[in-house]
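Researcher: We plan to redesign the surface later, but first we want a full-length starting point. Tokens attached.
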């Protein structure tokens, strides 16, 4: 049954973290080249989206001391930066992208209760869309269809996008949602 062609084996995908953690005592006993080999193997596996790093970079001599409790109680640190505990972020590590709605580097139109089209706000600016596309290659994100519905050719791509958005956003009641619907001429 397990070897049947109908049963498909699914491999786990990972690569979420690029950090390599080992007990501090082991890190201190490792040479610089051993440390860099382990770190580069993990980072390369993470970049490729693999679940595990290459077994060529396995580290020996990390004794459990006979029990799982002793193994967990060890002082686990990052191999690349032993001053940081496992999972801890360094102060220089970049914090997540912040959506700026106003001010320098804005990528969203500010929602206004008055105005139509671009003045209404409630959606991404062209600058915001371009920035998103740079960070997410292959993205098909586009700005709002702000053309007057009467000027749109029925059945055109733009008309269909507008119609779909208006149907999808019918229940939006927030300030930004209402502004977006005004911008799309819903």
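Model: Full-length starting sequence:
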């Amino acid at each position: 049954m397990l070897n049947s062609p109908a049963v498909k084996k699914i491999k786990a995908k990972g690569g979420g973290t690029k950090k390599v953690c080992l007990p501090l005592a082991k890190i201190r006993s490792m040479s610089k080249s051993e440390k860099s080999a382990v770190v580069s193997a993990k980072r390369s596996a993470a970049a490729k989206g693999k679940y595990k790093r290459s077994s060529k970079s396995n580290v020996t001599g990390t004794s459990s001391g006979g029990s799982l409790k002793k193994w967990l109680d060890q002082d686990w640190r990052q191999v690349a930066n032993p001053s940081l505990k496992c999972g801890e972020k360094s102060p220089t590590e970049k914090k997540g992208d912040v959506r700026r709605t106003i001010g320098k580097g804005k990528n969203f139109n500010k929602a206004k209760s008055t105005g139509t089209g671009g003045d209404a706000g409630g959606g991404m600016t062209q600058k915001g869309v371009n920035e998103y596309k740079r960070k997410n290659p292959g993205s098909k994100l586009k700005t709002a269809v702000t053309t007057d519905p009467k000027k749109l050719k029925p059945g055109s791509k733009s008309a269909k996008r507008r119609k779909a958005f208006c149907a999808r956003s019918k229940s939006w009641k927030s300030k930004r949602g209402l502004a977006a619907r005004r911008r799309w001429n819903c």
